[in-house]
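Thread: sanity check for a docking pose with magnesium ion

Original post by kr_44:
Hi all, I'm comparing my docking run against an independent structure prediction. Below are the sequence and the ligand SMILES. Could someone generate the full complex and paste the structure tokens? I mainly care about where the ligand ends up relative to the chain.
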Amino acid sequence: MRYYLNSKISKILVIIYLFLVTYLSLIKSIKSENILYEPPNLGILKNNIKYYINSGQYEKDIEKVINKAKEYIYNRTKDLTEEERSKLAVVFDIDETSLSNLEYEYKYDFGFNYETWIDWVKQAKAQPIKPTLELYKYIKSLNIKTFFITGRNQLNENLNEDPTIINLKKAGYYLWEKVYFKPTNTKISTIEYKTNCRKDIESKGYKIILNIGDQYSDLEGGYSEAIFKLPNPMYYIP
Ligand SMILES: [Mg+2]
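Reply from moderator J.T.:
Ran it for you. Here is the predicted complex with magnesium ion included:
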């Protein structure tokens, strides 16, 4: 009797389960029929990005890339003399490669406009991206030359008083051959501008062995033996 009851209850439960599964999949199909295409939701994306950063995964991913870059530099230069290494160059991008603008990004909820950006740059308080700073120090210790190529504009004719230069020094980047600033009101693309700068470096007799940036536009266009891309889920510069 008990067995009979149990099996009856089981059958009822199975029927209820099947009914629910069918009902829910029907609702789902009706919904998806009414929504043909919906791009990713901006609010959800922002939360995901904040989680990526706050969880520490962003910095871990940066470290992974930088460690690979260090390994590459070691292998590329281990058999060279100091004199030979002094003819080699490494190119760094600045924003989200050498300096972090997380404070600005969070303050304006990943929004951007030129006035608030210039105001932020003038404060010269962007923190160093620590793994990149370590890579920079390692490169300097090998007597390899360093260059910065940035999409930032020069804001002061006197380089020593330019906020970007002040910020780089404050962050620990103490010496370089040149910082290339993007000229104001230029119409050339970022790729063309940055490629021209690297061409200029090589025309001076240096061989660029590494170019590191957070945007694909930092890295395309050649004039570097190797390129390394850092993560940046916050903005895109074509
Ligand atoms: Mg950048």
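The beta strands are 88-92, 99-100, 127-128, 145-149, 178-180, 207-213, 227-229. Hope that helps with the comparison, let us know if your pose agrees.
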